[in-house]
């Protein structure tokens, strides 16, 4: 095999974003992510501070969302979310572009917002992932977003929120990898539910994926590697 347990575990942002999750489930999810040594826990914003406490001393990053899931928040509100997330210990932030402005071709607005949020995130010592929500966009809009994000210097471009009408497709992952500069990584979100799919998106150039089926994915990885 051309991958190790760490290779696949450190691709996973364990998703705890379902609004119906209870406090007990959020606590258990953070503990599971720490036990399996994934890349990060992407948790609902109101529980980020507690997530950071649980993950303290581990290599798992506490992360959360900005402008999620629809992207329609005013830029000032998204900036306030960034500031609060940084105070609460967030080290990676997943922000949704303003989909309306993208579809309307208001590229000055889109670029200005991404730049402001990226600068605020980087100033706080954190990294940023920009969610396109590709299911609503055409090819040229996706390319334009890749160009903007590459120029600004975001850390990841991300396919989806997981709450739109579609998730990470092979076509979109190829396009985003091809059209983004080397310093911008690609995150797949939506539809990565088993190890085989994770390995497929890895082969397409994704370095991260959002997943809620983390335990099943990594238990299967251990089984294949003879670690179970």
Structure in words:
By secondary structure, the protein is an alpha/beta fold. It has a single domain, classed as TIM Barrel (Alpha-Beta Barrel), CATH 3.20.20.70. The protein has ten helices and eight strands. It has an eight-stranded parallel barrel with strand order 1-2-3-4-5-6-7-8, surrounded by six helices. Strand 1, helix 2 and strand 2 form a beta-alpha-beta unit. The two termini are 16 Å apart. The model has no long low-confidence stretch (mean pLDDT 98).
Topology record:
Blueprint: H1 5-9, E1 12-16, H2 23-36, E2 40-43, H3 48-55, E3 61-66, H4 75-87, E4 92-96, H5 99-103, H6 107-123, E5 127-131, H7 139-152, E6 156-158, H8 170-179, E7 185-188, H9 195-203, E8 208-211, H10 214-225
Parallel strand pairs: 1-2, 1-8, 2-3, 3-4, 4-5, 5-6, 6-7, 7-8
Helix pairs in contact: 4-6, 6-7, 7-8
Short description:
The protein has about 230 residues and is of the alpha/beta class. It is about 45% helix and about 15% strand. An 8-stranded parallel barrel has the order 1-2-3-4-5-6-7-8, surrounded by 6 helices.
- Count of discrete domains: 1
Q: Biggest sheet: strands, sense, closure?
A: 8 strands, parallel, barrel
Distance between the termini: 16 Å
| Corresponding CATH architecture | Alpha-Beta Barrel
- Enumerate the spans where pLDDT stays under 50 for 5 or more consecutive residues: none
Biggest sheet: strand arrangement = 1-2-3-4-5-6-7-8
* Rg, alpha carbons: 17 Å
Let me know the CATH homologous superfamily: Aldolase class I
Percentage of residues in helical conformation:
40-55%
Number of strands: 8
Q: Assess the beta-strand content as a share of residues.
A: 15-25%
Kindly identify the CATH topology.
TIM Barrel
Q: What does the average pLDDT come to?
A: 98
Q: So how many helices? A: 10
Molecular shape: globular
Helix and strand element order: HEHEHEHEHHEHEHEHEH
């Amino acid at each position: 095999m051309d991958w190790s347990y760490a290779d696949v575990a450190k691709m996973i942002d364990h998703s705890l974003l379902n609004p119906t999750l209870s406090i007990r489930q959020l606590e258990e999810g953070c503990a599971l992510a720490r036990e399996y040594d994934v890349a990060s826990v992407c948790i609902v914003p109101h529980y980020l501070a507690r997530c950071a406490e649980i993950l303290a001393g581990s290599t798992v990053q506490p992360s959360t969302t900005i402008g999620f899931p629809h992207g329609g928040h005013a830029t000032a509100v998204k900036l306030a979310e960034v500031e609060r997330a940084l105070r609460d210990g967030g080290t990676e932030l997943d922000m949704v572009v303003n989909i309306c402005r993208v579809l309307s071709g208001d590229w000055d607005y889109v670029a200005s917002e991404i730049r402001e949020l990226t600068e605020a995130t980087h100033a706080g010592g954190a990294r940023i992932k920009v969610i396109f929500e590709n299911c609503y966009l055409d090819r040229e809009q996706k390319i334009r977003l890749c160009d903007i994000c590459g120029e600004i210097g975001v850390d990841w471009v991300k396919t989806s929120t997981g709450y739109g009408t579609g998730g990470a497709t092979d076509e979109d992952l190829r396009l985003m990898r091809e059209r983004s500069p080397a310093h911008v990584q690609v995150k797949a979100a939506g539809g990565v539910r088993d190890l085989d799919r994770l390995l497929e998106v890895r082969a397409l150039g994704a370095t991260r994926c959002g997943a809620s089926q983390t335990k099943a994915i990594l238990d299967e990885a251990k089984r294949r590697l003879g670690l179970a």
